[in-house]
Amino acid sequence: MARSGRKKKSSKQRRGASPKLEVWRPGVDPLDEGEELQYEPSAYDTIHAFRLGWPCLSFDILRDELGALRHEFPLTLFCTAGTQAAKPADNRLIVAKLTNISGKKRGVELAASDDGDSSSSSSDESDDEEMSDKTPKLEVRMIAHHGCINRIRSMPQEPNIIATWSETGVVQIWDVKSLLQELSSGNAGSSSRIAHQAPLQVFSGHEVEGFALDWSLAHQGWLASGDNNGVIHVWQPNRREWIVGGRALVGHSSSVEDLQASFHLHFWCPTLDPFRLASCSSDGTLRLWDVPTCTCTAMWKIHDADVNVISWRSDSVLASGGDDGIIYLWNLKHLKDGPIWMTNYHSAPITSIEWSPHDSSMLAATSADNQLSVWDFSVEADPEEEAQVKQSVAAPKGLPESLLFVHQGQRDLKELHWHPQLLGTIVSTSFSDFNVFKPSNL
After folding, report:
1. Angle CA 276–157–247, to nearest 5
2. In CATH, what number is assigned to the domain containing residue 188?
3. Average pLDDT, the chain
4. Given this model, what pLDDT does residue 395 score?
5. Which of 55, 122, 347, 353 shows the smallest number of beta carbons within 10 Å?
6. 314 pLDDT higher than 50
7. Residue 131 and residue 435: Cα distance in Å, rounded?
8. Is residue 126 part of a domain?
9. Which of 19-28, 188-197, 415-424 has the lowest mean pLDDT?
10. Is 98 inside any structural domain?
11. pTM for the full predicted model
């Protein structure tokens, strides 16, 4: 079971030698003089990096009409991102299209070796050539946005409607339909033109800036925004406008860090209230809210540090990640019983967390320790498979059993999203760049 996509290799190594791969852990293992880090190609079906000018520390996947669930290469994806420019006037709301995302065909790779060794040198060379022959094409469109974008989210039911949380303390809603139409036309080409477009709505009722922002999956057009004063506002759609600014959800004693407005419809559980909202805060608590009555129905101290991120699965299970680097799983029906699972694998704050839309047992998280981890809670230890891995990879001792994959190579990881239509594909953003990749063991 591949648990890492990186290897450590000495530059003094003889050409043609095949040393045992070593998994390098940032913040734990030193990098000696004369050593360099290289990613292990066999760990990925595809991996590509791209940049959008200024760092974009928040982004979202835009659902498209190219197919509900796709896995054949080359792949195409659409996303939106918000910049962190040095000057407020230089910031942009970006809509991007990445096409020709090449990758490996698993059937061809498995048939490459008679003895079943898919990591043979000839197979690796063939895979490398296949990956390098096709270069992804990036096309972007931009809208001027005053101030850095703290958080950006696309409405799942209408992807052209996008909400942004600005460092200036306002939440804005935009319609990027015309930009998406340009990018989808097939001959969009590159463009450095910056559109100066007015947002559909601007809300300045938050007295300070914030980061928490989420659209409802269960009810189209409903939006929740939370600020650094601990105040949450719920946006109710009214044709092409939103009713917002009335009675707020107040209870957190510090900043609202993340919100989850609903769960995946295809995993819908009728025992839960579709108008329920979950919030987490730097006060260390999780709160559940009844939106129609604006009341807090449950509150629990879930971390001994800031709770940075949460992700609500379709059932009553919620994942949380904090400044303490710990990931917890909670059964919301039995919060008083404590977490049902936890790991302190990461050595720095958790910066994002998200359940897979395709597999309810799979969770991914990013951390300030520059690692993106993928967890599979249906995994059971296979002694024979573990023995085979140990023959070729010097894996660290004591790795958690549920740890399925570790992605590295990005500096200051901020956010990840599973692509809802590209099976097993993850997109992540960091201070250095974006990565789009698909682990080979998913």
Report:
1. 40
2. 2.130.10.10
3. 86
4. 65
5. 122
6. yes
7. 15
8. no
9. 19-28
10. yes
11. 0.87
pLDDT at residue 217 tops 90: no
Cα three-residue angle 129-98-313, rounded to 5 degrees? 105
pLDDT at 12: 37
Indicate the pLDDT class of residue 398, thresholds 50, 70 and 90: confident
The verdict on residue 20 lying in a domain is no
Contact assessment for residue 426 and residue 405, using Cβ atoms and an 8 Å cutoff: no
When pLDDT is cut at 50, 70 and 90, the band that residue 391 belongs to is low
The whole-number average pLDDT for the span 398-404 is: 89
SS (H, E, C) the chain: CCCCCEEEEECCCCCCCCCCEECCCCCCCCCCCCEEEEECHHHEEEEEEECCCCCCCEEEEECCCCCCCECCCCEEEEEEEECCCCCHHHCEEEEEEEEEECCCCHHHHHCCCCCCCCCCHHHHHHHHHHHHHCCCEEEEEEEECCCCEEEEEECCCCCCEEEEEECCCCEEEEECHHHHHHHHCCCCCCCCCEECCCCCEEECCCCCCEEEEEECCCCCCCEEEEECCCEEEEEEEECCEEECCCCCEECCCCCEEEEECCCCHHHCCCCCCCCEEEEEECCCEEEEEECCCCEEEEEEECCCCCEEEEEECCCCEEEEEECCCCEEEEEHHHHHHCCCEEECCCCCCEEEEEECCCCCCEEEEEECCCCEEEEECCCCCCHHHHHHHHHHEECCCCCCCCEEEEECCCCCEEEEEECCCECCCEEEEECCCEEEEEECCC
How many structural domains is the chain composed of? 1
Residue 82 falls within a domain, yes or no? yes
Rama region for 114: left / alpha / beta (φ>0; ψ in -120 to 50; rest)? alpha
As given in the structure block, the two tokens for residue 210 are 């914030």
pLDDT of residue 181: 95
Residue 267 structural domain:
46-103+134-439
Q: Per-residue confidence at 274, pLDDT binned at 50, 70, 90?
A: low
